Amino acid sequence: MARFPDPQDEPGDGPPEASLDAAESLRIIAAQRTVVARDTTPDGRLIFGVWGVAWLLGYLAMYLSSDESHAPAPWAGAAFAALLASAIVVTAVHTSRRSAGLRGESSRVGAMYGTAWVVCFVVGFALIGRIASWAVDVEGGGAIITIASNGISCLIVAALYMAGGAVWDDRRMFLLGLWIGVVVTAATVVGTPYLYLVMALAGGGGFLVAAVVEHVRAVRDGTPGRARTREA
Amino acid sequence: MADGDLDPVIHAQARLRIMATLAGLPAGDEISFPRLRSILDFSAGNLSTHLRKLEEAEYVTQTKTFVGRTPATYVALTPRGRRAFETYTESLSALLGGTPT
């Protein structure tokens, strides 16, 4: 392939341009598209990974520390809350870094989607709070509170993952939401204390499988996580 | 088709990388000048020079705005620029005779 000079580069325009051939140009385009995709979209391995670990360890602690009345130890509840809070912080920081400096249609879609999570959980916690205030005085109320709080929270997660999959035409995200819906239905039916075990293994495990699938896809597509640590 | 038929505005390494980056963003999105610079790893002067050429060809727009009190510039591909980039990539494939490396 013949190389030729770039006719647009007059003197004084900075360093002279290297001339290009067609194959080199296509390679540059492909490489640049890979870099853009990797740098401006969230890494599913990190997001699914932190949620998988949080659910697996948190629910497992709740299950293993449950006493005869199916009530988990306070330390397990605190550990679970800390794991979920960490996953929320990692998700929020990571997605905001990846979308830094971008604005327009997809930023508006992302902002609306993020707001939907916040609003749904505010409604969910209000509902859980009301149910808990009634159930606390009822015989077997602990199980009611557990099933309601887990079911309401995970219903929101399942619904918004499926909605996100629909919005972005992302089959993996949709399937993950679908799977969480199946798992939460099963956990709700079996009730305490096995609810925690189902959520840990099938729910947390589902996220971890999704993280592995993302990793396989990233390696196949040649977009392994960025080695650069410079921030946007 | 000869090499010389390739769009000379795009067919230079620096501008090709800029165009490929902007085309890689979803249509309707804009990117801030510093973020674009960080993805491309260009100097500010070099990026400005090439963006000006792309702007003269009406392939990109540069929107000056304020984020809080800080001035900010957002860069986006125009519909004309997106079409030119598609034509360019199709021409490359045609040049290679359907045997991409």
TrEMBL record, chain A:
Domain of life of the native organism: Bacteria
Keywords (A to Z) from UniProt: Membrane, Transmembrane, Transmembrane helix
TM region(s), chain numbering: 46-66, 72-93, 114-136, 142-161, 173-190
Protein name, entry field: ABC transporter permease
Native source species: Georgenia faecalis
TrEMBL record, chain B:
Record-annotated Winged helix DNA-binding domain positions: 15-95
Protein name per UniProt: Transcriptional regulator
SUPFAM superfamilies, sorted: Winged helix' DNA-binding domain
InterPro entries for this protein: ArsR-like_HTH, WH-like_DNA-bd_sf, WH_DNA-bd_dom, WH_DNA-bd_sf
Classification via PANTHER family: BSL7504 PROTEIN (PTHR37318:SF1)
Organism this protein belongs to: Georgenia faecalis
